[in-house]
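To whoever picks this up:

The nightly regression suite flagged Ppx/GppA phosphatase N-terminal domain-containing protein as changed. Nothing in the input moved, so I suspect the structure step. Input below, exactly as stored in the fixture:
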Amino acid sequence: MATSAPRVAAVDCGTNSIRLLISEIRGPKPSDIVQIRREMTIVRLGEGVDASGKFSDAALGRVRTALERYADTMVAERVTAVRMVATSATRDASNRHEFFRMTEQILSRVVPGARAEVITGTEEAELSFRGAIADLPADKGPFCVIDLGGGSTEFIVGTESEILGSHSAQIGCVRLSERILHTDPPAEPEIDAARAFAAEKVAEVRQTVPLRKAATFVGCAGTFTTLSALALGLEEYDERAIHNSTLEFDALRVLTAQLLRQTAAQRAAQPVVHEGRADVIGGGCIVVDAIMDEAQAATDGAASSFVISEKDILDGIVFGLSEQLHLEG
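Regenerated output under the current build:
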């Protein structure tokens, strides 16, 4: 009697959202991995952490609700291995032990002893890189993958076989919005201050990452994928249309300027903008603008577009779980 292919789950809990990917491992190659489910929930775990240094009870409650639902899904889908990673907000919170205790209580229903783990900015970048370039032709490299999150943005330059440099910049759509963009829509002095702060943080990337060597710039995570959906004029979010789409810098600057002038309610009225992202995507736009400036400066103007990837850290985690299963087998 044939045995069914094992299923694994990856969970990523960031500053703004918690996400789940369940995949079936049908063979030893990345092409043998089949996506079963991919979900995203806005939980705003990092809400207020930049100012208070700790998670709020409300934020932990939102994560608990979402993770309980994900655990139910993992059990129903017969998941046998799970890895949950926690990134920027969790590295910064003084009461992170409460978060980890809660994740172990919930994930142990799926795999005994499973719990979230904090990963470094370097490992976060490497996992995102591996996922983001999975469907890109090798001859388009070297790649610069940019994973723009709520609290931090990871930059990594490399090829399929070699990482040339990585950096975790402490800037993201939630961190920038909470710290500087207090009015709705943002006032010009706030925008100017946010641009200066973003430029300073992004400029640090060139100290450790060889951006000049990148032939293709790849954007992943919610700010980039939402911008792609808007640029494509989609009536509903469609990851198949967004994945591997191209955003030209010139057109993107027009779009980010438009979003910055809108209120959160006006952004949320657009069908592809998640209501939990509407109030922080203005901050994300400012970070994207800073990234475009830095990419063009580093490449003497050669960089002119992003390729948008729907694959990211979750896919990198699944690749690692697949390799572990085959090593153990």
